[in-house]
Amino acid sequence: MKKLLLLTLLLCVSHAIFYAQECSYGTYSEGSANGENISTGGLYEYMGAVDFDVPFGETFTTDEITVNLLKGDADLNYVNVFLVTESEGLPGDIIVGYTNLIPSEQDLEYTTEIEGLDVYKITLNLEAEVTLETGKYFIALAASAGDENGAWWEIASENQTYGLFDYNKFDDEPWGGTGYYNKVFQIIGTCEDSGDEPAELGEVCSQGNSSVTPENGQSFFANNGQVISIADDFIVAENTTFNLTRFTMDALLTGGGMHNATINIRTTDGNAPGEILHSFINKGPDYEEYQGYWSISGYPFELVSVRISFTFQDAIALTEGSYFIEVIPTPNTTDLLTWELTSSGGIGGSSYTSIDGGFSWDMNSGSNQIFTVDGFCEDTLSVDEVSSFSTFNYFPNPVSDILNVSAQSKFSNLELYNVMGQKIDTYDANTSVINTRGLASGIYMLKVQFENGRSETFEIIKK
Fold first, then answer.
1. Same fold, 203-379 and 383-462
2. Do 160 and 181 meet the contact criterion of CB atoms below 8 Å apart?
């Protein structure tokens, strides 16, 4: 009986070790000797926030947070710390909060040349474990300094990007942020497999428009400050379902960023955006990437390039056809916000703008926006359709003179290539024989383009 109990306990321990392991989320210090004011308990009340994501398929349990603060020699009096949800790209509802929490450790990390301020690693042990499912969360923090020097949350350089950019607030003002950096923190705990399995959505695929360096941008603001809609198109191939899971756009701006936006997926009406198929109101991005300051022609000052990504937790299934993705940003602190343009051309046609909420559209002739749509592609052909165009007949093979060809499905043309990929000849839809007498002996590839958009390639051996 004791042996059986011991075996059971060992199995339970091994099960826990296999499924739960230590993990943490956060950023590291780069010795910036710079920080953001999060002082509380005095004449002015400041608070900062930073986000982290629990990945799909994981459950995260935490009871410890470390942050780097610039402060004086005196220990902090206390720290107010809150774990909060994400709402429209901003800190939302409080999950759990601790006020007047005394740090368990306040260790010197490095000295600075700033009088009265050095960088300390502050360890905060939560009073109880907190378990978080897949999703985005924020840590909100305010600290009471033990002297007149205040408390400043250390920031990493602009080159270190993690989740969303800087968020802060003063007194009862709403959350804002103007920096392109991340605060230094670690939230520490254990990760466990949640048991969630990703849906079978097909093969990974993506498309979009890109550029080498930022060139220019289409403004989201009219001269009177009115917000403008901008939309650009993408194409779902024939006999394909595209399951859209992520949209990424490049923006040029002066400060603040894009806290959230309305994202619409529209049909195509003629060549312009048509009716709305899917709409996501005030959707917050899940990730922002700082890409540096750039001198842009026509602007008297440098603009910041930021890559902004939006994730759709439930994949958007789009069948073959042309679609527009429309962006309507929610105005915030930035004075200038543009969707980056490329002069290199793009998929589909030109982009469009609308000043009346999408009731009418103006074409930006010859212009395309920088964006990527990612997801999964599924082949929607039926078994009968696959077998019909796969039944392409060619004989004899190997061939010395005449190659006979026929197909059950209509084809638009045939193309013959050598093994180097060089095209030898093209044949129209009426072709039934191919004369190979003039070809050197070797292997050739015959590409068949069917009228339904599918193509197949066959190996031909010339004797």
1. no
2. yes
In degrees and rounded to multiples of 5, residue 126 shows phi and psi of -70, 150
The confidence score (pLDDT) of residue 333 equals 58
Domain-wise residue ranges, the chain: 21-193, 203-379, 383-462
Tell me the percentage of the chain whose pLDDT exceeds 70. Answer: 90
Residue 328 in contact with residue 227, Cβ under 8 Å? yes
SS3 of residue 389 by DSSP: helix
Protein fold of 383-462: Immunoglobulin-like (2.60.40)
Just give the CATH number of 203-379: 2.60.120
List, for the chain, all residue ranges whose pLDDT scores fall below the cut of 70: 1-19, 178, 332-334, 381-391, 408-409, 419-421, 452-454
pLDDT of residue 419: 61
Which among 40, 50, 183 has a CA at the least distance from the CA of 119? Answer: 183
Rg (CA), the chain: 29
pLDDT at residue number 18:
43
Return the half-sphere exposure (C-beta side, CA atoms, 13 A cut-off) of residue 96: 10
Contact 329, 264 (CB under 8 A): no
21-193: which CATH topology? Jelly Rolls (2.60.120)
